[in-house]
TrEMBL record:
GO terms for molecular function: DNA binding; sigma factor activity. Belongs to the sigma-70 factor family. RpoH subfamily. This is RNA polymerase sigma factor RpoH. Residues 78-91, 252-278 form the RNA polymerase sigma-70 domain. It is found in: Cytoplasm. The lineage of its organism: Bacteria, Pseudomonadati, Pseudomonadota, Gammaproteobacteria, Pseudomonadales. It comes from Marinobacter excellens HL-55. The gene is rpoH.
Amino acid sequence: MGMSLQLVDRLVPGANLESYIQAASRIPVLSVDEERELSERLYYEGDVEAARHLVLSHLRFVIHIARSYSGYGLAQADLIQEGNVGLMKAVKRFNPEYGVRLVSFAVHWIKAEIHEFILRNWRIVKVATTKAQRKLFFNLRSQKKKLAWLSHDELNAVAKDLGVEPKVVREMEGRLSSHDASFDGPTNDDEDSAYQAPAYYLEDRRGDPAVQLENSDWSEDSNGRLMQALETLDERSQDILRERWLTDGKSTLHELADKYGISAERIRQLEKNAMKKIKAQMTEAA
């Protein structure tokens, strides 16, 4: 076993997948007694070397599981790597007192890691986020291999088998049938009806430096002319306009009337006359 373990140590799935698989297959399968001894050493003594032996002796099992997910278009080496992560998590949590073989305990952890990897990488946009959607994704996709678009009866049957609403099945079916589209993909000049990527016809004018500069200059110029126009008014009219329009806590007509000892109607008239003078001054300045 020692030579086989050393051989696998020098390999990773992504470097040379076939060599890795051959090396993993040469590692002997543990007997019940050997597995229990190693598990007890790890569980009770924290023996890292025992954990290493348990992991390496089950690499062939991870490869077998990863091969069943080859239809998702993802690299086999990546699937194996993710499965190995699940195997290591299972070994860390395995209790020899459970009375089951490690392979039976680890299968859940291995598949969980592979499932998560597939959901993250199968499409740019994640197709399943909730627990129910994840279950539906893998179960529905396996059935879609032999079915076209589901009929009404097939839809209800699948929904009943998986314990979800029919509309959820139809939604997931649509996600499985969709495809990623590049935002800045190439155009086809030969056909008027050819696909045009959004990058070719969507324009964000907010990012145009010329427009930003123009807006900035306009605001600065308007503010300057407003301040000049205000200075042509008497102090009371300036104060009324500032209190009514140029402060966060705007004063009411009655508050200003009390301040100056006149009626609210007179304040309104002064405000109106001041606004006319301001407008005239700014028009002339423009």
